Amino acid sequence: MTGRPEAGTDTVAGFLAVDSGGSGMRVVIGVPGAGTLAQRASEEPVRTGDRGIDPGHLMEQLVPMARALSAETGVGRLEAAVVGAAGPATLGDALRAELPGAPAREPGVRRVALVADAVTAYVGALGPRPGRRSPPGPA
């Protein structure tokens, strides 16, 4: 799953998808229309404290991975990041307060969405298409 977009990619707008959970962090970089270009992972779970998930520790892991992925793929600009984290409703006071602005400062992401890790698991399992519904009938 590695690749480079077409020539002149310094201006190609890419995205980051981040899954942070109890088993570590996974990050992919991609380009709309081309999909995922490369991925990185850390087996170190993001720390939690009194205010939930530690956004500083999340960024300490995310920024180097984002830089490496950008260099590897040639994606020069990150338009959006989706961060899936375990329990943002119960573990995310600090994350909800600090995360939206942190990726704008470094690595320069313009838009950030924070979602529950259940959402990232769903998209990881099914991809960006609707799930399959069972036909009505007897069970």
In words, what does this structure look like?
This is ATPase. InterPro entries: ATPase_NBD. This protein is an alpha/beta fold. It has one domain (18-36, 46-126). It contains five helices and seven strands; from the N terminus they run E-E-E-E-E-H-E-H-H-H-E-H. A hairpin with a 2-residue loop joins strand 4 (48-49) and strand 5. It is globular, with a radius of gyration of 16 Å.
Determine the number of helices (DSSP H or I, runs of at least 4 residues): 5
Order of helices and strands: EEEEEHEHHHEH
Roughly how many Å is the radius of gyration?
16 Å
Average predicted confidence as pLDDT: 80
Helix content: 25-40%
Coarse morphology: globular
Q: What proportion of the residues form beta strands (DSSP E)? A: 25-35%
Structural classification? alpha/beta
Q: Please give the largest β-sheet.
A: 5 strands, mixed
Distance between the termini: 40 Å
Unreliably modeled segments: none
Lateral arrangement of strands in the main beta sheet: 3-2-1-6-7
Total domain count: 1
* Quantity of strands, as a count: 7
Organism: Streptomyces spiralis
Protein name: ATPase
